[in-house]
Amino acid sequence: MTWSRSIALTFFITLVGLAGFTATPQQPAPKDPPKPANEVIQTFPSNDVAQTAWKVRWATAAGYGLIIQDAWFQRGPKEPWMQVLGDARLAEMFVPYHSGSPRFWDVSYNFALVTLNKEAAGPFGKLLNEPANVVHEVRDRGVMWVDTATGVRRGQKLVLWACLDAANYRYIIEYGFQDEGTVTFRVGSTGRNYSSREFEGHMHNGLWRVDVNLDGPANNSVNVMEHIETPDDPGKAKTVMRPFNKGIEGPEDWHADKFTMLNISNDKKKNIRKMSISYDVVSMRMGNARHYGQGEQCTQHDFWVTVNRKDEMYYPKVHEYAKKGTKITNADVVLWHSTPCHHEPRSEDGEFRKDDFVGTTPVNWAGFDLRPRNVSDRTPHLAY
Questions:
Q1: Measured between alpha carbons, how far is 63 from 113 in angstroms, rounded to an integer?
Q2: Which residues pair with 207 in a beta bridge?
Q3: Alpha helix segments (H runs only) across 66-121
Q4: 22 falls in which pLDDT band (50, 70, 90)?
Q5: Which domain holds residue 168?
């Protein structure tokens, strides 16, 4: 989307927003195909002998912004590359306002990425692409672990991020690849509050589509992991692992009292303990979003899992894709995950200049982690 079109859309939604505007999700117009994949290989630690590494292929596309096309993790310097991800993207950004309108599906508007500069990249980041709209960073991520015998180990991660130019809002799309194998997915909402609705509460629902290819696309299965503790058996608790939606395509929900996680495993691939390698889906949440407008059925569950069908990319239709009821055991599975953020505007979102409230809203983050379970044979980056 060009800047002039972005201005026109802002002007249009401002006018109709005054009268009340509800957008039903529309299948995005055909987009230009993503540019050929770019590849980044990052070893860890970045300033010492390599112990682990990531190989990541990424691309950009109108509307979706920054897309991960494939990612492989290397568990040790002599280990082969192990695939973790196929196509991963922010599939939609749904923004409904409390009064019932407007209700925006921001990915479907085909916004372009913001052109970034050296200040955005920071002192250690690199600008990528032409024009420069992607940043590559290697960040210190704080303490990895503390051990009485060997001391403290700090961790690092490779970060690729870009920023979607969504009219008055900016959406930072960030993927992190940590030295011990975790992948982090984040979307940050910033920019300016919607004109004429500067103090109206609303939601920013980051809706992700992630093709998990753990050691390749075949033989992946999805389970739900829950912590169960009840007054019927006081003082005791248990962890329950069960098939996602009874082992077929469909939805599941996140429950705070059960510490709900999904577990995606490859039972054909074992570690040294003969445990299946797997990844846990660990959600970072303010709460669960439920929206009941026309065409908003996709928001009424927190997780969906389908098999990978390349023509099924549109998050607002995920409930229709799941109706096929295909088995998701030993299959090529796709995770669809809602990561909502509730934005109740505050004075820190801007300032009054005469009678107008203008300024920049600090970033509100939402997202989730894909965290390895039994992928490594020992504590990552241990010195002995």
A1: 8
A2: 92, 338
A3: 118-121
A4: low
A5: 3-373
Residue 380 in domain: no
Cα 104 to Cα 107: distance, rounded to the nearest angstrom: 9
For 327-382, how does the pLDDT look when each residue is reduced to its tens digit (9 = 90+)? 999 999 999 999 999 999 888 988 888 888 888 999 999 999 999 999 999 999 98
The secondary element (H helix, E strand) that includes residue 7 is helix 3-19
Would you say 307 and 183 are in contact if contact means Cβ atoms under 8 Å apart? no
**Does any domain span residue 268?**
yes
Q: Is there a domain that residue 23 lies in?
A: yes
pTM: 0.91
DSSP letters spanning 299-334: GGSSEEEEE--TT---GGGHHHHGGG--B-SSB-EE
Q: Is the pLDDT of residue 5 over 70?
A: no
What amino acid is encoded at 98 in this protein?
H
- Please give the tally of structural domains in the chain: 1
> Tokens 């929900």 identify what position?
253
Instruction: Judge contact between 254 and 288, C-beta under 8 A.
Output: yes
Query: What's the residue count for the chain?
Result: 384
d(CA 339, CA 362): 18
Q: Which amino acid is at 201?
A: G
- At 66-117, the pLDDT tens digits run 999 999 999 999 999 999 999 999 999 999 999 999 999 999 999 999 999 9
Residue 378 located in a structural domain: no
